[in-house]
From TrEMBL:
<dbReference type="Pfam" id="PF05239">
    <property type="entry name" value="PRC"/>
</dbReference>
<dbReference type="InterPro" id="IPR014238">
    <property type="entry name" value="Spore_YlmC/YmxH"/>
</dbReference>
<protein>
    <recommendedName>
        <fullName>PRC-barrel domain-containing protein</fullName>
    </recommendedName>
</protein>
<feature type="domain" description="PRC-barrel">
    <location>
        <begin position="6"/>
        <end position="81"/>
    </location>
</feature>
<dbReference type="InterPro" id="IPR011033">
    <property type="entry name" value="PRC_barrel-like_sf"/>
</dbReference>
<dbReference type="InterPro" id="IPR027275">
    <property type="entry name" value="PRC-brl_dom"/>
</dbReference>
Length: 89
């Protein structure tokens, strides 16, 4: 049953804090996932904006972290390479 250690539900992932390994900055908690349904894989994780910046349509700008930037999923944190993090348009 060792495979079970590598399985996480969305609820589990949303309870883990996301941290940039380059800066040590806490980016927040997962708000949403972008999924490619044809390929059955996660494309990116969506995090709430850290700036509190509000867009023209009065929505907060979210941060999108490519799934390929996820380096480690631990017990209570997700470590990401924040180099290609951008505001979600």
């Amino acid at each position: 049953m060792e495979l079970q250690k590598d399985l996480f539900s969305l609820t589990n992932l949303r309870d883990m804090e996301v941290i940039d390994i380059n800066t040590g900055i806490k980016l927040g908690f997962i708000k949403d996932l972008k999924v490619n349904c044809k390929e059955h894989r996660i494309i990116s994780i969506i995090l709430p904006s850290q700036t509190g910046k509000v867009s023209f349509f009065n929505k907060n700008e979210d941060l999108e972290v490519p799934w390929d930037n996820v380096r480690k999923i631990g017990v209570d944190v997700i470590l990401v390479d924040g180099e290609n993090i951008s505001d979600k348009k």
